[in-house]
Amino acid sequence: MPGLKIEAIGRYLPSRIVTAADIADQLGVTEKWIVDRTGVAERRWVTDETPLDMALAATKDALVKASIDAEDIDLIVYASATPHQLIPDTSTLLQRELGLGESGTKTFSLHSTCLSFMTALDVASAFIATGRHQRILIASAEIGSAGIDKSEPESGALLGDMSTAVLVTADVEGTSSLRSLIQRTYGIGADLCRMEIGYARHPLRVPTTPQDYMFHMDGPEVFRMAHRLFPPIIEEAVANADMTLDDIDLVVPHQASLGAIRSIQRSLGIDDDRVVINIDKYGNCVAASLPGALYEAVEDGRLQRGNTVLLAGTGAGLSMAAAVLTW
Amino acid sequence: MPGLKIEAIGRYLPSRIVTAADIADQLGVTEKWIVDRTGVAERRWVTDETPLDMALAATKDALVKASIDAEDIDLIVYASATPHQLIPDTSTLLQRELGLGESGTKTFSLHSTCLSFMTALDVASAFIATGRHQRILIASAEIGSAGIDKSEPESGALLGDMSTAVLVTADVEGTSSLRSLIQRTYGIGADLCRMEIGYARHPLRVPTTPQDYMFHMDGPEVFRMAHRLFPPIIEEAVANADMTLDDIDLVVPHQASLGAIRSIQRSLGIDDDRVVINIDKYGNCVAASLPGALYEAVEDGRLQRGNTVLLAGTGAGLSMAAAVLTW
Question: What is the CATH number of the domain that holds A232?
Fold first, then answer.
């Protein structure tokens, strides 16, 4: 069965930079509180960009980096918590904007909140292993800023907007591979991160309030659950790759919060210089965070072909995932 | 690589029956117009059921039919256009309600509107073929009734509510299999079926109207596109299974509309008695329609182990899918 290679990553960043100082007053806290509590000195927030605008821009960036055309993609997966519109699903709109509207190229959307990219990578690897698809686009566009609850300074300060586009292919050279991937969900934590709008609380069925459209998080309890359950999952993923943590060249975590990343990393004994952090500049960008950090590691030259990279993250659910790749 | 077997299907139907006569006045048409135009004499609409209530009831039905426990499931996929709530995704809430909240059982959601079940079947088959999962729950709960636009009598009369739960396993006896599956999307038809609420048109970003939460459809143009593009996809799926249409024992279509089903079927030369129709009783139940028709075929004894069954459907996107299974 062919291995999997991440061929290229594209990114789109809104141009509007919002600093901790810019939002401290509206969140009712100080600039120092924001930076100490979340590690987010600044983040990007959209002005009038839509998820589709952002996904398209990131995809074009990825296509240029891979030197391929949109026609070379045989599956488009939109992996995000924030759809452009509910129907049709965003993947079809992205297909049309890429000029593939008459191509028949298969598309669908997938959602596991902050782990949507990891889930899509899992699905992509199974499709590639079975030969069903050869080149898969995983696009994630996140506008977390739209759902900020200003009465919750921790989550309000945490969220940033970003889009990423990851091109995944069968590895013909036999050098790159997905060596292991584990994803686990603990529904006992389902209320810890939530946005309640949906078909149980739908404005045409029951009265809704702006709060229903906002993201709510019990940060301390998420931290406790992750601290208890996440390190063994990471260790298991590394063991499944027939490795130890010492074999990992680089750790690319979901940028949940600086404290959460440091806590998990230190409990595993991983030193700071092997961990990619960009939450200080961009905040927690939901499903785009992890591929967005991977993007930076590639662009900066920190991640080279042949390296062993550990991807790891937590998400609403509460879900946790870890994967080991030979880059 | 192991084959795939649909082990059991569960269903939940809201108890509230809504006849064509009941809704003719509010849609501004006659009972006869509704039945002639859509083929839907009656449909079920929820009263206060939520997507989670419905998905849980259908899943319990499937577990009883398969004589297994929830603990025997190793992946939960919520495949639907109507989420219970936006975050966390509905699969995690279903996991918790099934008593699996501390199990770690992997879960995620997937969405390709009416084809969500077909997409999930595609993903499930790849996971089973690679040995990554052994038993997968595909749950679809649809409350299309919440988004009905009474000024559009065709789509308003078409939609019904239903939930299904399909248990997919590796086939250890070597008798059942997924022989082929094709899914294609034509984004040129993305505006033909739409519900515009989302992050491009979000109530905390821009003023929204009730119309944004309603389903809109250009029925005649969907019909034309499907008539042109869908039959060759079905023929290709059958050919990929090394079969001809004569080898198909039973056709289980997505219950898009009676006219659409009959048109495609007749253009392929498939006689009426090989086609499962239940749109007259339940309407178009989005992603639950196709597995809901499959449920009836199994319950009625029309579909027996060893039979060859063709699943086929269209969805917003515009997307089209066809699959051949040895049941």
Answer: 3.40.47.10
What pLDDT shows up at residue A96?
98
Tokens of A29: 């806290």
Active site residue B254: yes
Contacts of A232 (CB under 8 A, 6+ apart): none
A151 and A188 fall within a common domain:
no
| Total Cβ atoms within 10 A of residue B237 | 22
According to DSSP, residue A195 is labeled B
- pLDDT of B171 > 70? The answer is yes
Phi and psi dihedrals of A96, rounded to 5? -65, -45
What was the pLDDT predicted at B172? Answer: 85
Chain B 198-227, residues with CB within 8 Å of chain A CB atoms: 198-205, 210, 213-215
Determine whether the interchain pair A185/B106 forms a contact, defined as Cβ–Cβ distance below 8 Å: yes
In 3D space, the residue among B140, B176, B183, B182 whose CA is nearest the CA of residue B309 turns out to be: B176
Beta bridge partners of A195: B87
Percent helix / strand / coil, chain B, rounded to 5: 40, 25, 35
Q: Over 70: is that where the pLDDT of A182 sits?
A: yes
A235-258 residue pLDDT tens: 999 999 999 999 999 999 999 999
Q: Which residues of A does the annotation mark as catalytic?
A: 114, 254, 284
Q: Which residues does chain B have within 8 Å of residue A177's beta carbon, measured at their own beta carbons?
A: none
pLDDT score for B1: 58
Q: What is the DSSP string of B103-122?
A: TB-EEEEEE-GGGHHHHHHH
Residue at a domain's end among A171, A190, A224:
A171
Q: pLDDT tens, A5-50?
A: 999 999 999 999 999 999 999 999 999 999 999 999 999 999 999 9
Determine the pLDDT at residue B174.
86
d(CA B196, CA B208): 10
Structural domain for A104, as ranges:
3-171
Is A316's Cβ below 8 Å from some Cβ in B? yes
State whether B156 and B204 are in the same domain: no
What is the mean pLDDT of the segment spanning B156-183? 95
Distance CA B310, CA B115 (A): 14
* Residue numbers in B near A52 (CB within 8 A): 200
End-to-end CA distance of chain A: 17
Judgement on whether residues A23 and A160 belong to the same structural domain of the protein: yes
Q: What token pair was written down for B125? A: 């088959």
The residue from A103, A138, A171 where one domain ends is A171
Q: What is the amino acid identity at position B85?
A: Q
Whether A246 has its CB under 8 Å from any CB of chain B: the answer is: no
Number of Cα atoms under 13 Å in the Cβ half of residue A252: 24
CB contact under 8 A, B204 and A210: yes
Q: Does B266 contact chain A (CB < 8 Å)?
A: no
Q: Which pLDDT score, from 0 to 100, does residue A2 have?
A: 67
Q: What is the DSSP letter of A82?
A: S
Beta strands in chain A (DSSP E): 3-12, 17-19, 42-44, 75-79, 106-111, 135-143, 161-171, 177-185, 193-194, 216-217, 250-253, 308-315, 319-326
B-chain CB neighbours of A214 within 8 Å are: 204
Question: Does pTM surpass 0.90?
Answer: yes
Query: Choosing from B84, B114, B193, B278, which is the catalytic residue?
Result: B114
A120 and A69 inside one domain: yes
Q: In the prediction, which pLDDT does A173 show?
A: 86
